[in-house]
Amino acid sequence: MSNMANFALDGGDPRLSVAGENDEKMMTDRTSSNEGAPAIFRRPASRPHNDSSITFEEYNYYAEKTRAEEEAHVGEIAGTQGWLEMIVPSKSGMGAGNLSSAEKQGADTNAHVNLANPEARNTISDEEWTNASRALRTATKSAIFYLITTDIFGPFGLPYAFATMGWGPGVALFTVFGGLAAYSGYLLWVVFMGTDSYEFPVKTYGDLGLRVCGSWARFLFNFLQAIQLVLNVGLIIVSNGEALSQAAKFKLCFAICCLVWALAGFICGQVRTLQKFGWLANAAVWINVACMIVTMAAAAHSLPNYLGSAESAGAGLDGGLSVTPSAAGVFPAVTHSNGLPPSGNFAGSINGAMQAVFSYGGAMIFPEFMSEMRYPRDFLKGMWAAQSFIYIVYMFYGLFMYGYQGQYVINPSYLGISTYSLQTVGNVLAMLSALIAAALYGNIGIKVLYNSIFVDIFRAPALTTKTGKLIWAGMIPIYWSIAFAIGAGIPDFSGLSGIVAAVCILQFTYTFPPLLAVAYMVKKNAMLPEEGFDPATGNVRKVDSGIKRIIRGFFAKAWYLNVANILYCLGGLTLAALGSYGAIENLINAFASGATNSFVCKSPLS
User: Which region ranges are annotated with the description Disordered (predicted)?
Assistant: First the structure.
């Protein structure tokens, strides 16, 4: 077990320190306009990565320089990491490994400097800055595969989705969602590769929005991302609370069951880097698989959990008639539907579809994953492998559970097992996996809040500094307490997860990627051969601007892809509106029916 960390983050050859050709030539003259009006030119190291005055051309120049350096380093390494090694990584590869002395020195220098302070940043040379940036990139595509599949809502919410949509529509929608999610991941990768660099690293989804759309996009993305992540953590706290109460045979107060997991988050949340999440992510994936096997075996050899029928998919369809017992206390037989089941309300089916969206909700933190990769070009392999795993394994599991439990499927599905011994095994496995997933969501969520509020507004130091680490330690209990209060305060688990899927996940996976891609391609293709950024003077040369430039960029290359991406973006917005309607209707019905929140002792499953 001592080598578990190598499973998802391989050790490997150090990245060589290559200083940029113009690093020493960055002087103090700059023309910041097309006419060449003199202004003060500040070196890359002296400017924050989210400085709104940095032009797209400058971001793109340094991105191309960084990509060329990465390719040169890959060519110097003996061998590359193949597909099999990605799933079962070796001890050596193109990952964290031993850092070069220059990288260590750059990282050590930055660790003692408050980078949010402009005057302090001026004391760092460009070479020290780029070396420190390299040192922070340690993840491989193995890590990406496991981090993307470190999911708790996707596999265990999918049976609920099939139960509310039926065989045909469920399979069709899950397939379409999967294909589009993989395409969205590709679009995010294209934009990342064209705007990220050692000089100006992309750290969050919002950074991509800033660089191709403007400050408004960064604020919107950061806001929605912060909401989704804290709600995800809240959902996990509640689902783990339900699992613990079920394992304790409802003898432990339900509010205490939820509180236990919030307190556990105070400890697990102290992990700061994705590198250290590597072995946890690896373990979580196989724990999920084990939990799926246990619940499938239990579903095949035992009756559904009739006592939890009020939380089942059938309770939200056709007035709950399919799960309402007769006067003699006999529950209806398990039923299935080839098409949409009789729902009695459109909202029930739409909310079920939103559970399928959860399976592909990882796109929200794809930029964060790429930002910590040693070689972000390898992200596509890790992402496509993860999406394929999600599609094949989750699909099989969802159909299997629906086949045996029909309308009695509960979200999350491991709560729908009636045999106590197998129910407990599934609950324990799910709780472990969910805690790891919650720690990951909390990790990214706090980084978004810290960088967008504390660093930008209050000039807080980086998380790599001693002060930053202390602030991080203090933010963890506050963040998890807020997540607990939000998650426990809403009585309908599926309704809340549907809201998260519609308002946040859908946007980050199906709406924002094509929007970013169109904006990026328009700006990239509008650049003429004589235009561009001059690193020696800081001058950005453009021959025109305005609508003429936008039209040229839109139609310069493969304009039909831009049109398709715009239609894709509009489709995502439409589906988000429908999903929000369905989730809100479910929540209204939950409150109207007298459903209680989680601040009570009685478990919703008892």
Answer: 25-49
Which residue, among 449, 144, 470, 174, has the nearest Cα to 275 in the 3D structure?
144
303 class by beta-carbon count within 10 Å (0-12 exposed, 13-18 middle, 19+ buried): middle
Q: 339 lies in a domain?
A: no
| pLDDT computed for residue 75 by the predictor | 56
The enclosing H or E element of 541 equals strand 539-541
Cβ neighbors of 209 (< 8 A, separation 6 or more) are 217, 218, 220, 221, 512, 516
- Can you give the CATH number for the domain in which 171 is found? 1.10.4160
- Is residue 494 included in any domain, yes or no? yes
**332, part of any domain:** no
Pinpoint the alpha helices (H) of 317-419.
346-358, 366-371, 379-389, 395-405
Cβ atoms 235, 104 nearer than 8 A:
no
User: In the predicted model, what is the mean pLDDT of the chain?
Assistant: 78
Degrees, nearest 5: CA angle 560-563-564: 85
As for how many domains the chain has, the answer is: 1
Cβ neighbours for 358, distance < 8 A, ≥ 6 positions apart: 151, 153, 154, 157, 497, 500, 501, 505
Q: Side-chain half-sphere of 35: how many Cα atoms within 13 Å?
A: 1
CB atoms within 10 A of CB 186: 15
Q: What is the pLDDT of residues 14-66, one digit of tens each?
A: 323 333 333 333 333 333 344 444 444 456 665 666 777 889 999 999 999 99
Q: Does any domain span residue 547? A: yes
Q: Give the pLDDT band of residue 544 (cuts 50, 70, 90).
A: confident
Residue 488 reports pLDDT greater than 70? yes
Pairing label, strands 92-93, 532-534: unpaired
The percentage of the chain sitting over the pLDDT mark of 90, rounded to a whole number, equals: 25
CA dist., res. 353 & res. 358, Å (int): 9
Structural domain harbouring 386: 4-326+344-592
| Helix (H), strand (E), coil (C) string for 105-161 | HHHHHHHCCCCCCHHHHCCCCHHHHHHHHHHCCCECHHHHHHHHCCCCHHHHHHHHH
pLDDT digits (tens, 9 = 90+) for 294-320: 999 999 999 999 888 888 888 877 778
Q: What is the pTM of this model?
A: 0.80
